[in-house]
Design brief:
about 110 residues; two-stranded antiparallel ribbon; 5 helices; globular
């Protein structure tokens, strides 16, 4: 527990530039999305309106599966390794952190 207390202490000491700005606050409202991921995403993407939809942005970041299609059959492979490595790592770890406590819960959000 001493390590958790030290981490909490450092989190309070470090000033984050994202606290007063609405884009950062909207991102931090997403489960598994912390201040580091919010600042990294806004810094990397900039203006999100340049993407038509979330799928395009996810492909730009590199968190969608690669596709190999032939004969009308689409095969989805692993996550592509394109885009910002640090941002992709933060997004994947955030998703894991959000999914882990869901367990066998049956509410709509956790399914």
């Amino acid at each position: 527990m001493a390590l958790d207390e030290r981490i909490a202490d450092y989190d309070q000491k470090l000033p984050l530039p994202c606290n007063p700005h609405p884009p950062y606050q909207r991102l931090q409202a997403i489960p598994g999305f912390g201040a580091l991921a919010a600042t990294a995403l806004v810094a990397a993407v900039g203006e999100a309106s340049r993407f038509r939809n979330g799928r395009q942005m996810a492909a730009w970041v590199g968190v969608v599966p690669r596709q190999h299609s032939t004969g009308g059959k689409a095969r989805l492979l692993g996550i592509s390794k394109r885009g910002d490595v640090y941002l992709r790592k933060l997004l994947i770890h955030g998703a894991r952190a959000a999914l882990r406590p869901s367990g066998n819960k049956t509410d709509r959000t956790r399914r």
